[in-house]
Amino acid sequence: MMTLRIISRLLDYPDEALWAHLDELRDATAQAGALSPAALAPLHDFIDVCRATDLLDAQANYCALFDRGRATSLLLFEHVHGESRDRGQAMVDLMAQYRSAGLEIDSHELPDFLPLYLEFLASQAPAQAGAGLEDIAPILALLAARLRERESGYAALFDLLIALSGVRLNDETLRQRVAQESRDDTPAALDAVWEEEQIRFLGDQGCANAEQDAHQRRFAGAVAPQYLSLDATPVAGERSCNS
Questions:
Q1: Which of 2, 3, 113, 170 has the most beta carbons within 10 angstroms of its beta carbon?
Q2: Domain harbouring 124, CATH code
């Protein structure tokens, strides 16, 4: 599963090691054989843009894109469970899945970090890797749509992952949903998320209700979790994770 391993590395934080081996990654994608020349073109274009970009600029862009707000987070469960208690159990279950495959996490990243999950899938048999991609295809498609809305080249990597999954989704539904969302990475949105609630006493229930209404209006249209129901339809015979 060399192709998944390469995409995993390109989705990780840009560092000197990655920038020093971009040429090797570009050559490896052609040798992997999982993608047609037409499908490889956007991947090669992405790598070429990376080669022409200063590393510090790439790092700043990465942090601004993936580390601010929930909309483009690379933590998969952020888009499924948000901050609910179910997220903790999902983490435990995913860690058990890693361990059952004989793998242990040796980095500081959470188990649902997308590049880490892709690296895990790359170590599995083609059928298992394809099933794993199919499971997260709705999240990948949503992220791709949001990245295209922000005119980010990273969208090409998500499009490739969706192609490898063999899943077809309703692009129009995604486009409409993303168009209705408010950006959650603006200074105002970030301040609202981290805003501390005031201490309230029992007699302040009326004020509390008014503040709650204001809070709901402020976040109307903002990004929320629970995105797995996106009319995903597996397309027979289109999965191509075979390298």
A1: 3
A2: 1.10.3480
How far, in Å, are 78, 150, 183 from residue 205 at the CA level?
31, 41, 31
Q: Are residues 51 and 87 in the same domain?
A: yes
Q: What is the CA radius of gyration of the chain?
A: 20
Shared-domain flag, residues 99 and 130:
yes
Are 16 and 51 members of one domain?
A: yes
In a domain, 192, yes or no: yes
Domain co-membership, 131 together with 151? yes
pLDDT winner (highest mean) among 30-44, 87-101, 110-124, 187-201 = 110-124
Q: Give the range of the structural domain holding residue 21, as residue numbers without chain letter.
A: 2-181+223-234
Confidence band, pLDDT 50/70/90 cuts, at residue 188: low
For Cα atoms 144, 69, 120, give the angle at the middle one, nearest 5 degrees: 55
- Kindly report, residue by residue over 7-34, the tens digit of the pLDDT: 999 999 999 999 999 999 988 887 876 6
pLDDT of residue 110 exceeding 60: yes
